[in-house]
Amino acid sequence: MDFNKAGPNKRVCAFFIDSILGQVGGVLLSLAIGKNVSWFGWAGYILLKDCTQGQSVGKRLIGIQVIDENNDPANISKTILRNISMIIPVFPLIEYIVMLRDKAEGKRIGDRLVKAKVCDLKPQAQDGVFLWISIVLLIVITVIQVGIVFMLVKQHPELLRK
Q1: Which are the contacts of 113, defined by CB distance < 8 A and separation ≥ 6?
Q2: Contact 107, 11 (CB under 8 A)
Q3: CA 63 to CA 127: how far, in whole Å?
């Protein structure tokens, strides 16, 4: 397989899609068990998201894939280790900056840690288009997170008391 480096906008867009799916899954899990475990649901999804042939739902929709140094889809242990940094607050932003600075391969810290790279399976789809899709998805993520806060406050009104 020829390696076509996935552009940063495609990668961010795929992450936003996965983040939305993880947040919705976390909210549904919280509603099902009656306790707010939305972060744990989201974090579990983010850790495991690329375990199917190196693709998450977001990566599959966008047309990108995590591959190892042999150009094979990354295995489950590599994808979990690769994604640990993405569940640490603020670290996805650091990963984004590192990815942008690596002009040659566009690797983030998690990619370097497990010797993986993200290839573009649909290089004909322009990376720039995904910037606008990512902006819309960021707005959706913000709305979901505000909804989670309201759900948390509704379940635990004592959080608003001093």
Answers
A1: 81, 82
A2: no
A3: 11
